[in-house]
């Protein structure tokens, strides 16, 4: 069971799951497309600005890493959260900078 924090939304979890399912880092637009594909009809279509804001929040808390080319990968902390092995309420904004799960990803520090 995942250990949530009050700042995590259902969209945040779906973003993390999309990144977990990808072999490579993804641009924001691709993440949004994957959210739409995973949803039932138009009910899960989110504005790109909303998805961008959620990715920025996840990155600030260290759940997502960004490459130099503005693509995003699941961080070690994000992977642990998805497996129920990290309590998200312990994360603090500014925790970014963890090593990415995907090899050969350059993280912006």
Shape: globular
- Can you tell me the number of structural domains? 1
SSE succession: HEHHEEH
CATH architecture: Orthogonal Bundle
Radius of gyration: 13 Å
Instruction: Indicate the structural class.
Output: mainly alpha
Q: How many strands in all?
A: 3
Summarize the SSE layout with pairings.
Elements: H1 10-21, E1 26-27, H2 28-38, H3 48-60, E2 64-66, E3 71-74, H4 76-82
Antiparallel strand pairs: 1-3, 2-3
Helix pairs in contact: 1-2, 2-3
Brief rundown of the structure:
Mean pLDDT is 85; it is low at 98-109. It contains 4 helices and 3 strands.
Protein described:
The chain has 109 residues and is mainly α. The chain has a single domain (10-89), classed as Arc Repressor Mutant, subunit A, CATH 1.10.10. It has four helices and three strands, in the order H-E-H-H-E-E-H. A three-stranded antiparallel beta sheet has the order 1-3-2. It is globular and about 30 Å long. It starts with 9 loop residues before the first helix and ends in a 27-residue tail after the last helix.
Highlighted features:
single chain, 3 strands, 109 residues, three-stranded antiparallel β-sheet, Arc Repressor Mutant, subunit A
């Amino acid at each position: 069971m995942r250990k949530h924090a009050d700042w995590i939304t259902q969209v945040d979890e779906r973003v993390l799951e999309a990144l977990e399912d990808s072999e490579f880092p993804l641009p924001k637009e691709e993440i949004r497309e994957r959210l739409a594909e995973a949803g039932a009809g138009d009910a899960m279509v989110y504005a790109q600005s909303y998805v961008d804001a959620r990715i920025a929040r996840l990155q600030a808390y260290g759940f997502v890493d960004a490459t130099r080319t503005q693509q995003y990968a699941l961080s070690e902390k994000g992977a642990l959260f998805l497996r129920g092995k990290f309590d998200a309420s312990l994360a603090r904004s500014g925790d970014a900078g963890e090593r990415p799960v995907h090899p050969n990803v350059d993280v912006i520090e």
